[in-house]
Amino acid sequence: MRRAPGSPRHWPRHAIMIAVSFLMLIPFYWVIKTSLTGENIYAWPPRILPVDPHLFNYVDVWYLIPFGRYLLNSTIVTAMAIAGSLLFNVAAGYALTKHFPGRRWIVVLLLSCMLIPFQATIIPAYLITSWLGVLDTWLGVALPLLSTIICIFIFKASFEAVPPSLIDAARVDGLSEWRIVTRILLPLSKSAIATNVILTFIWSWNSFLWPLITIRSPEMQTLPLGLARFLSVMEDTTGALFAFVVLVLIPGLAIFLMAQKEFIRGLTSGATKG
Amino acid sequence: MSRATIRRALGHRFVAVPLALIVVVVAWNVYIAFNDHGIIEGEVTDRTGAPVIGATVVFFERNFIYYEEKQRAVTDAKGHYRFSDMKTHIGQLEARTDDGRKSARRQLRLWFRSQDTEVAPLVVETPRS
Asked: Domain tally for chain A?
């Protein structure tokens, strides 16, 4: 018999989950606490509660480095990556729902490509980006994320979950393939869209190695590169460093908290129907 | 578009959160625009609280890892001093008198560059030998 969620028999499990949640949140708490106090993170015994907390470390970050410029670069690159990935992943995902000669081999090829780490393909990727003439540009940084295999399969699974009779009816009504995607499939795939947006956002926002290789001018640097630069030029800035980390984290956390329902739903639907 | 639709759209978290952030940023920038003349002022007193006339107040600006002297001001008949056009957000203040007394360096941290600020009185004392 299934027990109600509030049943006392569930309490031990809930207590364990709450304890694990607290453990998972400790690094976040420690980063925020250090950003507010600037205290030595190696001090022993560690202070659990912040002493004399203040927000001036955030002001230091804003003025000691071109934070606004880094934020602008990261935002533009991420927006380009999200827009491009939505376009290309939707198109590829829809194509893979069709039956055509060699489809199975393309799926196998895509799946096997997922096994190759990006670091292994970074030199060809660099050469292609250089050949396209987009090194040291926003487009060049966004380029590798314009299409990702995981998101293609998430869209494929989502599109395949739509009843074929619906698509057939739309086709009988005279809708073109593009309008079937935009008017029928995409409104029914909001979870897949949210998953694509969040994953691309996180990958683009946190990307370090690719921007490090493609970007040459300081004014084109993104936030992770700015963080590395901040570490190399500043001294005695524990508080400001952690404030910088918090500022880099906030947009990602905000987007995840806003879209977590769609994100979880999109990932689970991809897992069960793929 | 009906009023209910607009209200529902504004209440959606994907609209409400960015809108709230935009409102906060705009309000903060409006506040800055009205309070960024770079005026730092205050008073120099002795231990009894009496104003010190003719004391020199030195402002040290933080230059990455150390503080360097940026500007000086002299207190008036009321012990009052005033710096203007200070384009900084972090520094230190110290008051010195001609007879060798000086105050402890006061750390100054501002919420934004060129913020107009009134500093608590700097108290000059005879340094220990």
From this structure: 2
